[in-house]
Amino acid sequence: MPGLFTKLAQFAQNLLGDSRPQRDTLGDRGENAAARFLRNKGFTIITRNYRVDSGEIDIIARDGKTLVFVEVKTRKTDEPTPESQVNNAKQHQITKAAKTYISRYGYPRPPARFDVVAVVWPDGNAPEIRHTEHAFEATF
């Protein structure tokens, strides 16, 4: 029963503390690269990994007066393209989370848009970063 083993391992980690180093996955490195890329373009990063019951947004930033909800997709190869992985279901999930975030603002609400940052990072090479502004429209 892998589920039972996983639960026991998590319980032991909670009791004893986790001595393993922090994970440094390709996705984590891609999100860090995307945040640096956006800052270098003049964006202000507001928060990262915003989570609510309805979903998660990788990066929330400001581009001037516009709130930007950014989905970051990191892959080792460009086939299929990372941008193509932001399908309708993912767009809807991001939109729902954005709606929760933006509800904290009074009226009038700031303008907002949805961007995608694709990071293609082959082993042993520098990443290629592509930024698609207005990648999709809100689904609410």
Q: What's this entry about, in short?
A:
The chain has 140 residues and is α+β, with helices and mostly antiparallel strands. Helices cover 32% and strands 33% of the residues.
Can you walk through the features of this model?
The structure is a single chain. The chain has a 5-stranded mixed sheet with strand order 1-2-3-4-5. A hairpin with a 7-residue loop joins strand 4 (112-120) and strand 5. It is α+β, with helices and mostly antiparallel strands. The chain has helices spanning 2-16, 26-40, 88-102, and strands at residues 44-52, 55-63, 66-75, 112-120, 128-136. The chain has a single domain, classed as Trna Endonuclease, Chain: A, domain 1, CATH 3.40.1350.10. It contains 3 helices and 5 strands, in the order H-H-E-E-E-H-E-E. The radius of gyration is 17 Å and the shape is globular. The model has no long low-confidence stretch (mean pLDDT 86). The longest helix has 15 residues, at 2-16.
